Structures are given as C-alpha cells and as structure tokens.
Amino acid sequence: MNIYKLQYDSKAEGDADLLAKGTYEVITEEGVTQDVYRNGTQAIVYIGQIVEVPATYDKDGNELTPPIYYAGVFYDLMTTEEYDFGINEVLPLNCVHSFLGYAKNAEGTDIPEELTIE
Amino acid sequence: MSLLDDVSIVVTPNGYKAGELYAVVPVPTEGADVVVDGDFPLPNTAWSLTNATVEVNGARVNNTIVAGFAAFSQLLSGTVIGKQFVLTYDVIATNGKDLVLDNSTSLFLNTSTTGINRKLYYTWGRGDNYLVIKRAVADTDVTIDNVILQEYTAADMDVTRASAATRVDENGLVNYAEIVGSEEVTNGDFATDSDWSKASNWTISGGSASSDGVSAISNLSQTVVDFTGKTFLVEGVASNITQGFAYISLGGSDLQIVVDSNGAFSHTISISTANSTLFISARNNFIGSIDNVSVKEVTRDNVPRIDYSGGGCPHILAEPMRTNLVTYSEDFTTWTTTGSANVTSNTTISPDGTQNADTLDLLAGDYFYKPITSGAGTFTLSCYVKVLSGTLDFKMQSFSGTDGANASSVFTANTNWQRFEFTTTVTVDSNFYPVQVSGLVGGDFEIWGAQLELGSYPTSMIPTSGSTVTRNQDQFSRDGISSLINSTEGVLFVEMAALANDSTNRMISLYGSGNDKLTLFYKTASNSMTVQGFVGGSLQINRTITLTDITQFSKIALRYKTNDFAWYVDGVKKTDDTSTNTWRANTLTKLSFDDGSSGNPLYAKVKQLKLYKEALTNSELITLTTI
Known about the structure:
The structure holds two protein chains of two kinds.
Chain A: E1 2-8, H1 11-20, E2 24-29, E3 32-37, E4 41-48, E5 51-53, E6 56-57, E7 63-65, E8 68-69, E9 73-79, E10 97-99
Antiparallel strand pairs in A: 1-9, 2-3, 4-9, 5-8, 6-7
Chain B: E1 7-11, E2 16-17, E3 20-21, E4 29-33, E5 48-50, E6 52-55, E7 58-62, E8 71-75, E9 84-94, E10 99-102, E11 106-109, E12 115-123, E13 130-135, E14 141-153, E15 157-160, E16 166-168, E17 174-176, E18 179-183, E19 197-198, E20 202-205, E21 208-212, E22 218-223, E23 230-250, E24 257-259, E25 263-271, E26 277-299, E27 306-307, E28 315-318, E29 322-324, E30 336-337, E31 342-349, E32 355-363, E33 368-372, E34 377-386, E35 392-400, E36 404-407, E37 411-413, E38 418-426, E39 430-436, E40 442-454, E41 468-471, E42 475-478, E43 489-498, E44 506-513, E45 516-522, E46 528-535, E47 538-546, E48 554-561, E49 565-569, E50 572-577, E51 590-592, E52 604-612, H1 618-625
Antiparallel strand pairs in B: 1-52, 2-3, 3-15, 4-14, 5-8, 6-7, 7-14, 8-13, 9-12, 9-14, 10-11, 10-13, 15-42, 16-17, 18-26, 19-22, 20-21, 21-26, 22-26, 23-24, 23-25, 23-26, 27-28, 28-52, 29-41, 30-33, 31-32, 32-40, 33-39, 34-38, 34-40, 35-36, 35-37, 35-39, 42-51, 43-48, 43-52, 44-45, 44-51, 45-46, ...
C-alpha cells in the first residue's frame, strides 16, 4: 500500500490535482454529486490546515492567541498506485494524521502496518 | 416448497477471512473444464501461439530470443463473460518470471517457481471468449502444463477497507476485527529442552524457561517465521520474577515487549524489520520464568466486521470513511483542564476489556476540553462514560469565541459503560467537551474512547494515540455471478438498517452495466427508500416508499419479473407495478453494496441478504418479510 502526504496552496488546487491524476471521479447520480475513488485509491483524507504553534486559551476556553498554521492545506492519500506529485509531496517528521493500523509517520510506497505495542 | 429451495445466494454474518465474507449459499463448486487440450498434446491443434511453442512437457512462452509479445490462446465455447473461473496449472520450467492472464486487468499466474496444481480465481473480464496466457515482462521463459479452466460458482463477497477497524464483539467489548493465524512457536510450553537456543544462564525444565540472573543480558531465541511487514499477537505467562525484566522481541530491533511482572501477558505488535527470530532477552540480570509463549499472525486490513452492538443477532457493519480528530482517544491527561478539574490515568477497566479508562474529577465551574482544528462543519462528538456508583448528570458541548457554546441536553451516566453522542455544527476551529457540568453538580466520571468525527452521526470507535486517525470505507461486492442471478425474474431480499437518516443515497445493486441494474437504496428524503430498475438504459422500475425509521431493522423483498414487480417490507406490500420489463438472461452479473460502480456506497447494518432465482408469490414474500 502507498501513502502520500501532500501539500497545496488551497483546497481547490489540491482537489484539482488529485482529480487530474485520476485518484477520484466526480459523478452525479440521483441529483447527488459525489466523489468516487478510482484507480486503486483507498482513501483521500483532506486534513486542511495544520497547526504549527497552538492557540492559547483562558480558563473558560476563550482563545487568547490564535494558532499559527503551516502554509497551505494538506491531504493524505492511500492508494495501490504510484504517483509523482512533485513539489506537492511532503515528508513530515511528525505527522498529525495516520490510517488505522498504520504507523503515524508512514509515508511512501509499500507501507507496512503499524509498529505498536498495545 | 421451502423458501430455501430456490435461493441462489445467502449472505449472513457468518464465516470470513481478510478480504472475503463467505456466503452461506451457494457452496462453492467448480464446473467442467472449458479448455480443450489443456495438457498440450502433440501435434497442437487447439492453441494459437505467438512466440510460444507446444512441447513434450507443456506450453512454453519464450520471448528471450525474439523480443516482444509472447502468448498462447484459445477461443472458448459457451458463455464465459460475467462468470467467475478458477484456472489450475502446473509450472514445469521457469526462468523466474510470472505469466499473466490477458483479462481486463492484469491477473498474474505464479510462475516464478516450479510447482503443480496452482490456482488463480478471477472474474472473466474480457469482452470476448479468448483465454490468453502471456508474458508479463521481457525475457520470460516459462513452461506450464495441465491448464484447466472451470467455472467457479460462489457468492463470497470481496471486502475492501485497507485499514483496520473496530467493532463490538459477542461479549460487548470494543476490539479490532481481526484474523488470528496459527501458532508459529515450536515448544512454546517448554515441555522439552529443545527447539530453543539458550544462553548459559537460561534453563528449560519443569515446563518453563528460567533465567538465573547471572548475566546482565542473555537471550533465549528461536527462528520462527519472517516477521517483516506483519502484525503478531504475542502471549505468554511470567512467574517467579524477583529481579530485572525480560524483553520479548520479534526480530530483535523493533519495539520490544517488556515483561517485568508475574502473570499472563498479551500484546499485538507489528514488525517492519526483516528478521525471523523470536528473542526472549533477560535484562538487568533478570531472574524469573517464562512459559506458554505464543506468537500468531494477526490480520486487520480488509477484515469484515461482524458487529454485535445493540445486542441480539449480529450484523455486517458497512461504514463510511471517518477520521477521529481527537488525537488521544484513550489518554485524557493531555486534555485541557481548568480549576480543580483533574484526570487520573488507567483507573478502570474500559469497554475494550483492559484497564485503560481514566477518571475525570470535574465539578461545576471547572472545565475539561480539547481544542481541535476542526474547521467548519457538522461534527459528532462521542465518548464512553460511566460512574463508580449511583448516577451523575453531564452535558457534551462545543465552544468557540465565534460560535459561542452549543451544549447537548443533559445525559445521565450510571455504573454501566454507555457511549454518549452529541452532534454540533461549528463555523471555526472549536473546543470540544465530552463531559461538561456547567449548571450541574459534577463529580468523578470514568471516561474512555473519545471521538470527534465530521458527520451527523457517530461511527465505530477509531482509537488514536498521538495523531488524528482515519478508518477507510467498507466496500462489499461480488462480480462474475451471472449464473447465480436470474436476470429475467427473481427476488432480492435483505434485512438491514441504515446507520442514519442523513439524506444521502446508499445503495445495494444487482448490476450488469450502467444501463442494466437494479438498485435498492436509502434515499435523500427523510426515511425514504427507492427501487430503480434500468433495462437497456430505460428506467423500467422507479418506486419510492417511506418507512417509519430507516435506522431500525427492516426485512425488505423485491420481486422482479416482466410486468410483475412488487415490493414488500416487514410483511406488507408497499407498492407494485404490472408494466415493467426485466433483463435478458445473464445480463446482471454483480452483487454490490453500492450502485455497482463504487458510487453511493451502502452504509448500513446488514443481518441477511438472499437472492432467489424465481419470482416468489405474494404469500411467500409476506412470509419472507414477516418479523
């Protein structure tokens, strides 16, 4: 199984690139438009923005200082196929998202299942 | 006639393996051989050859001399399109390359080594009757013999999820759906002093292995199986520990299991390092004994979930992809607390059967929450909550400076674990409160398994430990079963319940193509269901009904036949149609928990599914669907 971690300037750009690469298809049936995975795609997870510096809050939960985000938005793609995402592929050291059963920092091709002790 | 006499497919929560849910009916059978001269007699008259030869010992595919395409093929008689087959073959000689079946997709024959009676199961994907066996890559030189092609009749459903997933088991515990393999350790009970490599301070006697503590580090080991890329259940019993500890390691360099106390131990561990040695390593001058060591491979990806939530008979669970945005679902010490609010770790046996639930001491005026980068959307927060005695009231809540507080109604926790849920809509990143006692009394709550997911209803538990985690969508389908589907008439019966009344289309289909399909689906309108039958692209059946509550189990039967469509639910005819066409024979070839082409997947709990090859009578449909 292959897992790609991807960064784009915007969700529109990311969606368009993933669509162009054939990872999914947009279909409309019964008046409902939906994204359907194609060509070995197992999951496309839109992570959105990732916090670099967390927000701070007062005792009642009101935000005191806002979070600082990394630039752009992020996706995780799980697929049986191999792709070249060029500069959009990133290799984070401490990932914020994983797939159930896979290591948190799993990225690349032929990913084994998770290293955990329960 | 019994209602089981004419049934061609029965799928229930029954046997399964990774990637497959076994059907109860039919019993898998292999038909007659449809290949002529599969033993390649000379002179050859039955096979067409390109860069291939029929020789004394079989058919040789060879493109090492003349580069390029190399294959042998045969035009089969009879109907093959839309059917499943099993291809059996012997590999007589090989230069290490695989052959491939020229289907709609690449289906590889395992010809990299010699061997006999190898099998390949597949659904015919070509649009014609040619069986083509060809080279997969350049420089292939492979000879195979005794090729047999038989129709394979079975309705076992392919299951795809490509991630682990949890369910509620028959004991009411939350755990992973998994397949546990056979024992890999030899003499794990140390019945004899054999099979293990021992350092000098290890002894095997009296039915256990003991370390005397003389050496700071010493190993007891056994070559077991290649661990690489696999997950294993490691179990054993420790006793008489008075000093140090033991590491148990599969391969030596991956994560190690620490055994430092007496009693049984059980861990699931996944291995990336290429190694096949099981080590029991005495550390810090370990003095103690180990017994009943067991290592079994565990598979979790693509394992169908037989779920017992709700009690009673189990169901097949088909859920959408969801991500748990809570990064520590079982460790609440990382959550934000205010005032005197306090979390104590691992105080209570949790719904997964281990002591990993926390105690939250929370009084009115104090808060306990998690800031989450949720963005905007409708989210469902869920958490298991109980108390040690009596009852305690609490709420669940979201809060942000933009949206303010959105709290649930009051829930009451008692001494039994219950999973509470709260759906809320936010417009910005927000704080989420699984237990909130503002305006209430508060007290000590036992908590476990927090989950925040984008969606209007909760799904099964997704454990997290340091990141958000995604469980992929469940997919069920079986193609190539035209012989089990009577396209001209029949009955589709299913007992199921939707996961939610959430205004989406969720389908079960009998499918031949986009123009030929019968779909039964939960529809976008509240508590509604629709049946549509497209015949040659023409909409022949199109009926919608409303049920009281689609999240409750219903027994649903559709009868389709030319000018005779009827739809029964729970013993009552809901609608019929006497001016319908149906399909030509062998048109419908696939049963799928979606629209047939991966769209509109079914998210539901399915207790049983049956397909009949005959249009049952009204009275039979009443009997079939009566609760």
